Amino acid sequence: MKTLALALLLSAAAGSTANAALVYGGGTEAGSRFNPGVGAITYMNCFTPITGGLNQLQLESVAVGIRRLTTAGALVDVGLNIYAAEMTFDGTTFGRGTNTLLFSTNSLGSGAAAVTQIVSTGTLTGPTLNLETTSNPGLGGWWIGVEFTGANAGNNINGWRVTNAPTTGASVNGFGIFNNAGSGVFQALFAFGSPPGSVASRLLTNVNGTLVPAPGAVALLGLGGAVAIRRRRAR
After folding, report:
1. What pLDDT band is residue 215 in, cutting at 50, 70 and 90?
2. What is the pLDDT of residues 149-185, one digit of tens each?
3. Which end of the chain lies in a sparser environment, N or C, as judged by fewer CB atoms within 10 Å?
4. CB-based burial label for 89 (10 Å; 0-12, 13-18, 19+)
5. Quick check: 9 pLDDT over 80?
6. In this predicted structure, what is the pLDDT of residue 6?
7. Whole-angstrom Cα distance, residue 119 to residue 145?
8. Distance between alpha carbon 175 and the CA centroid of its chain, in Å?
9. Sign of the CA dihedral running 172, 177, 181, 185
10. Exposed e or buried b per residue across 179-216, where buried means at least 16 C-beta atoms within 10 angstroms of its C-beta
11. Do the Cβ atoms of 128 and 214 come closer than 8 Å?
12. 160/65 Cα distance (integer angstroms)
């Protein structure tokens, strides 16, 4: 794993996703997985096309793919937290803003065969995320985070499944980590391969949501509409 210089490695699928249920996801699985170790949270960057001032994302559900292998004929159990975080960008570096825990379980369950297990938050009633719109004009970005928990959290026999480019939405071919090796800070971007990002470095993530305007934009639109109505009545 190496850091990835911010570059034009962002891949976007054709077609608009505004007002669609799936705003990010659909990438095909690669043959690897990633687990950063105990106490670290890995974050996948997600982007979706935005138009008409729809610069917030109201989350409806999130699903991640966890690759689980067997030891002595059985899956090694692990707990999991799923987060959503707002994305920041200072012109050079991506950062993490407001971070919200969406889902938590102490156990992914048992089994006797290797599997890519899809773990879903189920239906969500929030949060509504402010999208990052500076780094890639026409796209809004956010983070989805995964943290392994419990006694086996650092055992990389369980890991977030690596994928290729999404078929819906877009992403940089890399990921962020909070508290990597006990750093206590958020860092981005990391990627696999030499040079970094030369191989698949995205993580299996599917996000359903609705794009909405920021509250201030709604109020402004309402004011403009009221003025227009008064003008029409005066004629």
Report:
1. confident
2. 999 999 999 999 999 999 999 999 999 999 999 999 9
3. C
4. middle
5. no
6. 43
7. 13
8. 9
9. positive
10. bbeeeeebbbbbbbeeebbeebbbbbbbbbbbbbbeee
11. no
12. 6
User: Residue type at 104?
Assistant: S
Is residue 22 within 8 A of residue 202, CB to CB? The reply is: no
Tell how far CA 160 is from the center of its chain: 12
Which DSSP string do the residues of 206-222 spell out, in sequence order?
A: EEEEEEE--HHHHHHHH
The pLDDT tens digits of the residues spanning 103-121 come to 999 999 999 999 999 999 9
Identify the three-state secondary structure at position 226: helix
The phi-psi region of residue 164 (left if phi > 0; otherwise alpha if psi is between -120 and 50; otherwise beta) is beta
Per DSSP, 196 falls in state: T
Instruction: Give the Cα separation of 141 and 85 in Å (integer).
Output: 10
* Residue 10 confidence class, pLDDT cut points 50, 70, 90: low
Beta bridge partners of 57: 129, 211
* CA distance to 38, 64, 170, 203, per residue, from 67 (Å): 17, 10, 22, 11
